[in-house]
Write a structure and sequence with these properties.
Layout (H helix, E strand, L loop, with lengths): L6 H10 L12 H10 L1 E10 L2 E10 L7 E7 L12 H9 L5 E5 L22 H15 L5 E11 L1 H10 L12 E5 L10 E5 L7 E5 L7 E6 L7 H13 L4 E6 L13 E7 L7 E5 L3 H19 L4
Parallel strand pairs: 3-4, 3-5, 5-6, 6-9, 9-10
Antiparallel strand pairs: 1-2, 2-4, 7-8, 11-12
Helix pairs in contact: 1-3, 4-5
C-alpha cells in the first residue's frame, strides 16, 4: 500500500503519463497482480459507447491485505484527471484508502477527446453526466469481479460534474435497471436538471428561474454536501430536490455549509473564472471556486460516517 502522505501524488502520476491507456494493464489479470504487489494499479474496463464499447482508463488504490474490502467509485469533476485536474479525486482517495476502502478513479474524459476537461467547453455532451453514468456502472461491474472487493458494499462519490454524474447514476430506472451501488455521496452537484422522476423546468435560458415537479428517487441512500455561497451549482435546487425526496419517503439527505463556495474541499484561493460554463448565471458563463477549511474538515467527517454506516455497517 502506498503511504497515505504520498497517495494523492501517486494517484495522479500514472494517468498523467498515460499509463491507464491502451498500453497499460487492462482488465483483471495484470491489474490484480500489480495490486497484490503494491496496492496500486492502473488499467481499463469496457464501457458503453455509441460505436459499441470503449476502454475507460482507471487508477486504483487499495488497503494492504487480501480483503474483501468495501469499495468506492470516485468520479472526477469537470477538470478531469489530466494536467489541469483540480486534484480532488486524489485528495479524497488519500483519505478513504487508509479507512479501509478500495478506491477506483475512472478517467471519463481522455478516451472521449477531452484530456484537459470540459469546464469551459460547451460542446462536450459526449462526456455529459448522463453518459458518464454508464462509466460508473461499468466500474461497479468491474470491481465486482475482483476478489479483494466486497461486491455488496460499493459506493459512488463525486464532486461538481462528478456530483452530477452521481445523481445521473443513482436515480431509479425501473425493475432490473438499477445500478447496484450501496450508497452515494454527491458534492456540490447540479440539481437544477431533470433526473428520472425529478423534473426541472428553466424559464428564459441560463440563469432563469427554475420550477420543480416530482421527486428524485435514489436506488440507495444519497448524501449531498454543498456550499451556501456556491454560484456554479447553487444549494437551493439541491435543497428542493432533497426536500421532495424526503417527503416521498426516499433516502436523500443534505448538508449545506453556509459560507462555502464551489470546490470547498480544497486549499485553493477564491477564484472567479469568466469562461466556466454555468447554466445558473445569465449569459451561461462565469463561476467562482474556493476552498473552505472548516467545511472541508466537516465534509471529511460526514463522508467517513456515511460510508461507514452504509458500506461497513458502522453505527
Amino acid at each position: 500500500m502506498i503511504a497515505s502522505g504520498k497517495l494523492a501524488a501517486a494517484i495522479m502520476l500514472p494517468l498523467l503519463a498515460g499509463c491507464g491507456g491502451p498500453g497499460g494493464a487492462v482488465g483483471g489479470g495484470l491489474a490484480t497482480r500489480a495490486i497484490a504487489a503494491s496496492g496500486d494499479a492502473t488499467g481499463s474496463f469496457a464501457a458503453a459507447a455509441p460505436s459499441g464499447t470503449m476502454q475507460i482508463p482507471f487508477q486504483l488504490l487499495k488497503p494492504a491485505g487480501d480483503g474483501p474490502f468495501p469499495a468506492i467509485v470516485m468520479v472526477h469533476d469537470c477538470s478531469g484527471v489530466g494536467r489541469r485536474s483540480s486534484g480532488a479525486p486524489g485528495r479524497w482517495a488519500a483519505k478513504l484508502v487508509p479507512q479501509g476502502y478500495v478506491v477506483i478513479l475512472p478517467d471519463s474524459f481522455s478516451p472521449r477527446g477531452f484530456p484537459d476537461g470540459v469546464c469551459t467547453d460547451d460542446k462536450a455532451q459526449a462526456a455529459s453526466p448522463f453518459v458518464r453514468a454508464g462509466d460508473a456502472r461499468a466500474a461497479l461491474a468491474w470491481l465486482r469481479t475482483q476478489p479483494y472487493v466486497d461486491g455488496a458494499h460499493i459506493g459512488l462519490m463525486g464532486g461538481s460534474h462528478g456530483g452530477s454524474t452521481t445523481l445521473a447514476t443513482m436515480f431509479e430506472r425501473g425493475t432490473g435497471q438499477n445500478p447496484g451501488f450501496a450508497a452515494a455521496i454527491a458534492l456540490y452537484p447540479g440539481c437544477g436538471v431533470s433526473y428520472g422522476s425529478w423534473r426541472v423546468t428553466r424559464q428564459g435560458g441560463p440563469g432563469g428561474p427554475l420550477s420543480f415537479a416530482g421527486a428524485y428517487k435514489p436506488t440507495a441512500p444519497l448524501l449531498i454536501l454543498i456550499g451556501g455561497k456556491d454560484d456554479w451549482t447553487p444549494a437551493a435546487p439541491c435543497q428542493s430536490l432533497a426536500a421532495a425526496a424526503q417527503q416521498a419517503g426516499d433516502p436523500v439527505s443534505i448538508k449545506v455549509y453556509p459560507d462555502a463556495l464551489h470546490s470547498f474541499d480544497s486549499n485553493s484561493r477564491i477564484n472567479y473564472n469568466a469562461e466556466r460554463n454555468n447554466a445558473n448565471k445569465q449569459g451561461g458563463r462565469g463561476a467562482t471556486t474556493g476552498g473552505n477549511p472548516a467545511a472541508w474538515a466537516d465534509a471529511e467527517k460526514e463522508v467517513a460516517a456515511f460510508f461507514g454506516k452504509y458500506l461497513k455497517g458502522a453505527d
